[in-house]
Amino acid sequence: MNDRRGFTLVELLAVVVILAIIMVIAAPSMTKQIKKSEEENQSILNQKIENAAHLFAAKYYAPKLINKESFSFTLNQLEEDGLINLKGNCNNNLSDTIIVDVKGNYNYDNIKSDGDTCYQ
Length: 120
Hints:
Blueprint: H1 9-60, H2 62-66, E1 71-74, H3 75-80, E2 97-100, E3 106-107
Antiparallel strand pairs: 1-2, 2-3
């Protein structure tokens, strides 16, 4: 009686080929989803920083806003004031500066997300 157990080489090869086909189909979609998620994360980060910056500026720099003067402050100042909470190890530096120009535009292009949620 021939009672051998296991898979033949052809069966294993078929499984490997099927898995390879699935990977080829799924990889571009997964890459696109990861990129989309990172972009959404950056957008959320930008909105949180902008909201905190507006509150901070209104609280401490109202005369400068009214007189259309430029000024700047840092992420550290936003955190110390309790407007934004930093968590984990982010690529951002607490000394990253938010600049408000004479037109009242907030510039914080140097502040980037590292793919993780860095701010609450």
